[in-house]
Model the fold of this input.
Amino acid sequence: MEQHKFAKVELLKKYLDNTITDAEAQELFAWLKDMDFENNKEVEEIMAAYFQTSLAETAKLPGQTRRESLDKLLNKINEVKEKNITPVRRLNKQWWMAAASVAILLCTGSYFFFFNKNQAPIEIVATTSKDIAPPKANKAIITLSNGQALPIDSLNNGQLAMQGNVRLIKNSNGDIIYTGTADSMAYNTLYNPKGSKVQSLTLSDGTKVWLNSETTLKYPVAFTGNERKVEITGEAYFEVAKDAKRKFLVSANETTTEVFGTHFNVNSYTDNGFVKVTLLEGSVGVSKERTTVRIVPGEQAEAINNAPITVNHNVDLQEVMAWKEGMFKFKETTIEPLMQQIARWYDVDIIYQGKVNNHFVVTMPRTLSVMNVFKILEETGNVHFTIEGRKVIVKP
Done:
């Protein structure tokens, strides 16, 4: 094997063993971040060499044991954290994507060279007409205070509307921006449906919001009075503009998050049956009925139906924020929440036939077609998928 390819194999080993140095990690990620993984013979050769040298003994084990070993391998990948780059908000996006690429490579590579060690590599390329592509457009709609609906993707850049003295603008990136002030309260609603790319919005006070698919945000065109309040159904990430005189309130399914200036994620899909508030920066208070908890960065407050609010002190922030960074990331996840994310992103309906008991550990880019996603999932556990139009049947 050529010397540079051997070096890459050694770096992969060190990455999994958690013995990699900062300089070595930088070298590995620099190689990965601009790599075209599809139909790349160099990548295939390196991954083949890795599995031949590192997993030769494991490959001799029975099929079920090999799958358990693979689960442990993927667990180890997801547990690796780059030194001196925590919490996740400090992690450069390209490095985060490159690190995720390691997991993708090893997940697909383990299928090529682990379960089919004596066969030619199987190319994961969807060619069937049943396949469903990931969202290529933004389907978000803004409803103005007068009831007029504005489909964002079909409108030209520039000023979209005037709401009193407040300008509603679409910039060249498709972001929505409100500028101006108002004497009275008027509300707009932004709805980002299933099968739509993430939509970003800048409120009149400078607060930035990113909306996941199937999410609705109701907000004033300009904030008046001594507080700033918005309402959400679905999932959104907030970077709240600091304003010591006016607190910022997010209302979601009878739960209120109170902040002055901070970064946090709210997951409040109604079909989940819970509201989860995850803090990345600053400090927030989460209230429901007469109970209030305060969380710090890296913690997550969870309100489930009528139960008291609980706090998770050990949250995988990369898993929480994967949707915003264009990734799926699942760590010991059951099939139901996994399929909920897939249903929203690809705009499909899910039907279960039988009980799937597996827990999944996998990281994948959201740019994959749905069939490629399913092929990867089918290799990580006892689950199978059938596509009928926009209906997906899930069975053991």
Residues 326-395 form a domain with the Phage tail protein beta-alpha-beta fold fold (CATH 3.55.50.30).
